[in-house]
Specification:
The complex is a heterodimer of chains A (111) and B (114). Chain A has 111 residues and is mainly β. Chain A is built from no helices and eleven strands. Chain B is mainly beta and 114 residues long. Helix content of chain B is 0%, strand content 49%. Chain B has no helices and eleven strands. Chain B is globular, with a radius of gyration of 13 Å. The N and C termini of chain B lie far apart (36 Å). Classes of the chains: A mainly beta (111), B mainly beta (114). At the A-B interface, β4, β5, β9 and β10 of A face β4, β5 and β10 of B.
Amino acid sequence: KQEVTQIPAALSVPEGENLVLNCSFTDSAIYNLQWFRQDPGKGLTSLLLIQSSQREQTSGRLNASLDKSSGRSTLYIAASQPGDSATYLCAVRSNDYKLSFGAGTTVTVRA
Amino acid sequence: DTGVSQNPRHKITKRGQNVTFRCDPISEHNRLYWYRQTLGQGPEFLTYFQNEAQLEKSRLLSDRFSAERPKGSFSTLEIQRTEQGDSAMYLCASSSGQGGTEAFFGQGTRLTVV
């Protein structure tokens, strides 16, 4: 069974600082890994999708890396803003359809 | 297309009542998923449809839960004889093609059983 862990569980930084969010998974046989953002009481917004053959993916201030062999992914958010405050979830697709999620990292960016 | 749509957004029900949630996926997506999320946790897989066929049900989905996707379009998730432990956010997602494609989630239905 795929186990996904996100560390830290919570993070508070001043505005402008770079954010580094970590995700680890136990089974390296994955199809892809997806990072999501979740605002309180809301659904999930997809941020980045990294295929198993890729090492990284970038979108604006967001950059995600994938090291499949060591079972790790890192989400970097450059020059954080108060609007980046949310919970960030990492999800791994280990078969054709099922996503396994971590518990998330809750980020607070202080103005 | 406005994305994955879920209704209702919130539902409060008394213990023992039946509830039904609806999910409208992105129109060209043939795959539809239901997940459940409790406070402070990541979503957990409940069930998966490819077109109208329900291909997997999690052990989390007890006999009180049933999901359908008639004609491979919208889906419904019904919970019979609700219990307080059913209180959670129920999330629907859809994707197209094979496993490498991106999953898109709806805004969820927040169920509170009192």
